[in-house]
Amino acid sequence: FTDDGLPIGVTYLLKVLKLEAEFDSLRWFDSVNKKFFEQERSLMQTNVSSDDNTNKLAIRRLKMYQKEFELLYCSLISARVFF
Question: Which of 42, 69, 35, 34 lies closest to 58 in space, CA to CA?
Answer without folding.
Answer: 42
